[in-house]
Specification:
Layout: E1 32-36, H1 60-70, E2 74-78, H2 88-96, E3 101-105, H3 113-122, E4 124-130, H4 141-151, E5 157-161, H5 167-176, E6 181-183, H6 198-209, E7 213-216, H7 220-223, H8 235-244, E8 249-250, H9 267-277, H10 281-296
Parallel strand pairs: 1-2, 2-3, 3-4, 4-5, 5-6, 6-7, 7-8
Helix pairs in contact: 5-6
The structure holds (1E,3Z)-4-hydroxybuta-1,3-diene-1,2,4-tricarboxylic acid.
């Protein structure tokens, strides 16, 4: 039998919360966790040789337990950089989910049509481009565009991860992308700056001028300086986006919270963050149910269907 690699998580790795609290906020029926990950298990799905961190195992079974405990109905599982472009753990989770999960993959530029078809059949609906330098060695833009050309026939969209300080350099490239584009983690603003300041205004402008650009209002735990339980300093940033673009926002837990060094969030508190940034039941329904269904389960969505340029 082929020997499997044994992985030791990084010494400073923080393992996900062992027993999150029950949230006070009751999620509406049909809520989607639109950003979460699975890691390994490493002895079954080895981590990438190019990875920048070695996490703890975070298997699909634990994700399903969290889903059920929090009152979530579906998941969008995002390929994490530690698995590189080997999407096997992601596909395994999607196949186990009985239609209740969709996926976002990492791809090589030479990915074949048959590989894409297999990913689509498993439930993948998007490709992720990561521009966070500490996490990946970036791909050249012509490679990204080659991948974009390949995914368009499947109606997939693009998920981008970048830090706000890098947006000025990336703005025109992002604005030129032809599909729906979903931005991770509110565009990672520096929340010690002003919500009406130049840096965050640039991100708001990107969304205002490009109706195909969506945003995940995720990871207050990752963005906050004031910290748990309330993550109060992140509220104005996420709320501004939810109120300005109610039909283009998504929410997720980010479980198992890769690379957090300051603390490990209680996932129940992350659910209780939602009504602070989406104050009405209509905003909450769009954020948690209507928008993710329209994007990831359009065949089940009651809303008008969209082409993948975001037009209804
Ligand atoms: C996240 C955040 C991070 C990690 C990754 O792919 C990844 O490794 O996304 C991070 O370290 O900021 O999206 O979960």
């Amino acid at each position: 039998m082929k020997a499997r690699a044994a992985f030791e998580m990084d010494e400073d790795w923080r393992v996900f919360h062992p027993n999150p609290s029950k949230p006070a906020f009751i999620l509406p029926a049909g809520s989607v966790d639109a950003h979460c990950h699975v890691f390994g298990p490493g002895n079954r799905f080895p981590f990438s040789a190019q990875r920048k961190y070695t996490p703890c195992d975070a298997p699909k079974e634990t994700l399903w337990e969290l889903r059920d405990f929090l009152g979530i109905e579906r998941n969008v599982i995002v390929q994490a950089s530690c698995h590189g472009t080997d999407n096997a753990a992601l596909v395994d989770a999607l196949e186990d989910a009985g239609g209740r999960a969709r996926g976002v993959a990492f791809l090589d530029r030479d990915v074949s049509a048959a590989e894409l078809d297999a990913l689509h059949a498993a439930g993948v609906r998007a490709v992720r481009f990561n521009f966070v330098k500490r996490l990946v060695d970036g791909l050249p833009r012509d490679a990204l565009l080659e991948i974009v050309r390949k995914i368009q026939r499947l109606g997939w969209h693009i998920v981008i991860y970048f830090e706000a300080a890098d947006l000025p350099d990336l703005y025109e490239f992002f604005a030129s992308l032809p599909t729906i584009v979903v931005v991770d983690h509110v565009g990672r603003p520096d929340v010690t700056g002003s919500v009406g300041g130049r840096e965050f205004d640039l991100f708001v402008r990107l969304m205002r001028e490009n109706e195909n650009i969506w945003c995940k209002v995720t990871c207050p735990d990752r963005l906050s300086q004031s910290g748990p339980p309330g993550y109060d300093d992140v509220i104005p940033f996420a709320k501004r986006i939810v109120e300005a673009f109610p039909d283009r926002v998504l929410w997720g837990t980010d479980w198992p919270h890769p690379n957090l060094k300051s603390h490990m969030p209680d996932d129940g508190q992350l659910v209780d963050f939602i009504p602070k940034i989406a104050e009405t039941s209509e905003l909450q329904r769009k954020l948690l149910v209507d928008n993710p269904l329209r994007l990831y389960w359009p065949e089940e969505s009651g809303a008008a269907t969209m082409n993948n340029e975001g037009q209804q």
